[in-house]
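User: Teach me something about this protein's shape.
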Amino acid sequence: MISLELLAVILSSCGNFIIGIFTYRKNPQSTTNKLFFWFTLCVSAYNIVNYFSLHQSDSVSMLFWMRVVMSLALWINILFYLFVKAFPDIHIHESKLRVSLVIGVTLCLSFLSYTNFIFSGIDLSHQPIPGIGIPLFLLHTVIFLGGGIVILIKHWKEAKRVTRTQLALLLLATAFMFVAIIISNVVLVLVFKVSAFVGMLPLYTFVFMATVSYAVIRHRFLDVGFIVARAVTYSFLFLIFSFLFTTSFYLIAAFITGEVVAKTSFITLVLFSAFLIAFYSPLKTFLGKVTSRIFFQDKYDSQVVLANLSKIMSSTFLLNNLVDAVLTELTSKIKISSATMIFIRNSSIIWARTVGIKPHLDLNEVEIAGLTHKAVVEKESMFIYQEMEESTDKEIMRKYMASMLLPLVVEGEVIGAIFLGDKYTGDIYTAEDITILKIITPQISLAVQNSLSYEEIKRFNVTLEREVKSATAQLEGANEKLKELDKLKDDFVSVASHELRTPMTAIKSYLWMALAGKGGAITEKQKYYLDRSYSSTERLIKLVNNMLNISRIESGRMVFEFEHLDMKNLVQEVIDEVKPRADELKIILSIKTKADLLRSDVWADSDKLKEVLINLIGNSFKFTPKGGGIEIILEEKDNRLITSVKDNGVGIDAEDQLKLFQKFGLMGGSYVTNQQAVQGTGLGLYICKSIIEKQGGSIFVFSEGKGKGSTFSFSLPLYSQELERNIASNTDNKAEKLGIIHTGV
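Assistant: First, the predicted structure itself:
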């Protein structure tokens, strides 16, 4: 007959093992679940081995089983430590090297426990004789078992609500079991040589099993309550059927034979047991369907719900459609009586929507905003009414008939909340419901934020379109006025320049005749004054000519008469034209072509290019001292002809180079070395730039600085028939086209 002690050992060991199996099957990928499974397996094995160690008749067997008990105790220590390090997450937060090290130490001690290292023998009173390794065993227990309990206490202090309750129950169960085991199996045995309480081990593990079972069923510990509930249902149904079969057997036997024969009863019972074993699997499947239909009729596929919600949130940006679809999916699948989504901005409710039963409530924005912000501050992903302690917050939840509050948060900012009512089935929210809501709430927050932004953008676009139309009308009116003013300016400059040109030319002629002695002999002082007047008049005429040229270019009235010309010949013509002036200034002019120059023909306006060359050479005259030299260099590069005017004059600083090619971009007087050259107007290089760019070219300057000369270059595309066709097709043939006015050197 099975003793009461052995029955207690079997029941407590099986209970612990079953809890471990359920935990592992819930999530085989979770390190936490795996560790808890091995922990419960070791506790069950420890329970059984401890029983065997107490019921041996010879010292050798007793010593062996005691050593097995010590070995298992080491593994219980380390598994408990690793489990609490991981809980409540699914992965252990410890380096692989450190885990490998502690497992290696435990493995070594476990092997040594089967030697004289832990227990060296059994004394005459059947008590174990401690070996030299007992201090190491106790140190291992203190570090890992005690350390695990300390970590568990730390987790419990930092945890919130449900997790805190789970940890409290686990802490209570493990503390009781381990303290009782250490006192009865270690302290009393090793110190006081008392082993009378060693047999009470099943009681300690039974308390552990009962407490953990309560945490599983009541507080969703390790989220295996659903599996346990189904297993219990199956077990009860199986026992009921077994009882009915056995009872039927006895009744039938008694009715037929009039007496109960023990042997017959035994055989019949065996036959019925064989029948149950043979048909257990199909009966299990059938009963599973029946119990699911009866007890789990509200079960839904969480993956399908998540997929549907993701599809909804990715398919529309319209706020009303999005909120209605999301709330409808939640209420219909999770069987929620009502769901309300509220949007908050600056602690004020800006929008609210309810699906399902609509309670007639006045929404208090201060209460709702305060409760929602509190959830964020306390880092709660949700408030569950059943788990809240009695407080003002719970009173607010009760007022709005809400079983759950889900704050909507985007990048740390609260944008709203979802209030969920009771489930119309009367059930509480399951762990699966809570998991889905935790997963989907951040996605809903982001989708709603995008929809709100989309609505704001739509409203902004309408306003912006109105503003743009108004601003466009104003700009068009202002632009027309500017065009009129610009035309008036051009007309004024053109008329004024024309009117000034005639008298200035006359003045220049009379001054020249006076200087030439046509009106009689003049004194040296008079000649000095007349020279100054003549130079100023010449400069003023040049300014007038430049202003007329700029007016024609900018108003689009200057005509460009393109032709196929050889730049080398054009340069030679310009040199011949300005050579007298160069001789007068004692400056040497020369033309140079690069050795690799194959072509020098371009499609351009020769008259305009001549003005550019004259202007660039005239500038070099001003800044090149007597006896200096000016080279006109021709080179071919990237299918373009580059023409450069290079002098060995004073050069230009880098900051002053930025002023060139701008209107009135005059250089400082300190650069001028040839006082006989006519002073510039600051418009010549601007005109050169405009002329070159109108012909598809570019102009640029290079100088290493003062005293190192300057090189002004412009590039034009080499001639081709395609270029000729393109320029001809883009030429505007409007009337009233004007040429350029040459200014000379």
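Now, about its shape. The longest strand covers residues 348-356. The chain is about 60% helix and 10% strand. If you'd like, I can walk through any region in more detail.
User: That's plenty for now, thanks!
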